[in-house]
Amino acid sequence: MKKEFNILTMLISGPKSPGKCLNVFMRPLIDELKVLWETGFPTWDRYGGEYFMMKAAVMWTISDFPGLGMLGGIQTKGYTACPICLDDTDAKFSHGRMSYMEARRWLNMNHEFRVQGRNFNGKEEFLLGLCARQTLVGHTAARQNENVWIT
User: Which PANTHER family does the protein's record reference (predicted)?
Assistant: First the structure.
């Protein structure tokens, strides 16, 4: 296997997965991306016939739910498992499993499940699909990221 693909082989889920310490394996990639973003890399533009400084950034990642928790440093299990609602998630532990009570808020306002309270938690659902904390801005976002562990 080529050296540049070694990092991908280490990101396998299962009993030998890196767990919460995913940043150890991502650090070389993050360091290279920082250089590409800050200083760039001289790249030949064939059409223009000149060099330019190419810069790069990660726009998004695609991962499964446990991978999202490891990569993003957010809780994806338990009472605050919703990556959108975070602390505003309405969850209850019942019959040996977690139940997320207000999941119907994401349905259309005229969906029949919104008024079928007896089939869910005994209440009709009138909340819109937005959590109480719609967006994190400024010092609120910074305060939430204080506990993110970065190697």
Answer: OS08G0208400 PROTEIN (PTHR10775:SF185)
- How many whole angstroms separate alpha carbon 100 and alpha carbon 58? 32
Using CA atoms, how far apart are residues 47 and 128, in angstroms rounded to an integer? 50
DSSP character for 110? T
Helix (H/G/I), strand (E/B), else coil: 143: helix
Global pTM exceeds 0.85:
no
Which tens digits make up the pLDDT trace of 65-78?
Answer: 877 877 777 778 88
Report in angstroms the alpha-carbon separations of 133 from 17, 20, 90, 143.
33, 26, 13, 14
Q: Measure CA 112 to chain center.
A: 30
Question: What does the DSSP assignment read for 36-51?
Answer: HHHT-EEEEETTTTEE
Domain ranges of the chain: 17-59, 63-151
CA 71 from chain centre, in angstroms, equals 7
Average of per-residue pLDDT values in the chain = 75
Nearest to 19 by CA among 66, 57, 54: 66
| Measured distance CA(141)–CA(40) in Å, rounded | 28
